[in-house]
Amino acid sequence: MSIRVSVADPSEQETWNRYVDRSPQGTVFHRYEALECLRNHSGATLYPLVGYKGNHPVGIFPVFELNSGPFSLVFSPPYELGIPNLGPALLDMDQMKQRKQEKRHLRFFESCLEWIDEEIDPQYTYVETDWHYEDARPFAWNDFDVSPAYTYVIPLADRPDEEELIGRFSQNPRRLIRDAQDRDYSVDVGDRDDVAWITQSVIDRYEEQDRTPHLSVDFVTELYDRLPEGTVRPLVLSLDGERVTGNILTDTGDRIRHWQGGARVDMDLPANELVEWHGMLNAIERDVPIYELVGANTRRITTWKAKFSPETRTYYSAKRSTMSMEMAESLYVNLRDSSELLSRLSPATN
């Protein structure tokens, strides 16, 4: 039996979100409310694709169409919003034997691809999967250029206490965190205003480095407003009653991710080390088994993250383009053209 692909509409939001919750690859950003936020702030058209075998759902694949002049571009996730991963999320395949699982997976993916080609006919397609999406062969078998990318996770299922957790870090953060315990600082879960403040701090840091920010305050606060309470959670470190730094965490119940934040602080308090440690303690308190330090692809940044002794996980970026778009991208690389179209072609991850 073939896989039938349809587009979920807003009336099916609850059903879609149940699929997200059931899928090992489902993330905060797969939720229907989050997808609508991505649509609102990317200027893209959203297609939440659902694959069915008969009446049984086998997977979801949210994609976004962007148009620049004569070109149609498809992204999952859309670029320039700081979203680390999206892509396909599979349903009810873990209990299948390997042969049947691979067959169902491939048919679902190729049916979605057929829908995309028939309805959008893009010249360029770019997908970044979640690290739970372990088999990227369907992309490679359908003419995508597939590349591995990396992120860091810290397993916390054994629920270490504060000192046990510190003891797992390298020498430098162990010393810094222990030495800071007599300082008058606090780390607390914040509110919407703190979400906006942390986001603006990240934006300011990008601009100080002459880099283009990949998110906006309006986008992140809309996510905070629309997703279930506690899904987007600001963690704020204050010293003597004044905000110093903070992280924006996302929480799916089985994984907490440090998504945004951690702008450099010029002071003698190890503020970012402390707020990261408290983020992990927050995960332990909520009985969440994984804390993710999103992104392990930039050497300068990994040097800082690695001192918390994380484990690496692999996810995949997959790109497919027509000959004309390959020529345009090659021209961009050679000339460093900063046009709006070409700046979208290679989403960057930390």
| CATH homology group of the largest domain | Gcn5-related N-acetyltransferase (GNAT)
Mean pLDDT: 90
From the spread of the alpha carbons, the general shape counts as globular
CATH class category label of the largest domain: Alpha Beta
Poorly predicted runs are: 331-344
Kindly estimate the percentage of residues that lie in beta strands according to DSSP: 25-35%
Order of helices and strands: EHHEEEEHEHEHHEHHEEEHEHEHH
Tell me the major beta sheet.
Answer: 13 strands, mixed
What percent of residues adopt helix (DSSP H or I)? 25-40%
Backbone CA Rg: 21 Å
CATH architectural category of the largest domain:
3-Layer(aba) Sandwich
Number of strands: 13
Structural class: alpha+beta
What oligomeric assembly is this protein in? single chain
CATH fold assignment of the largest domain:
Aminopeptidase
- The number of distinct structural domains comes to 2
Counting DSSP H or I runs of 4 or more residues, the number of helices is 12
User: How widely separated are the two ends?
Assistant: 41 Å
Family: Belongs to the FemABX family.
Keywords: Acyltransferase, Cell shape, Cell wall biogenesis/degradation, Peptidoglycan synthesis, Transferase
Pfam family, one: Acetyltransf_6
Protein name: BioF2-like acetyltransferase domain-containing protein
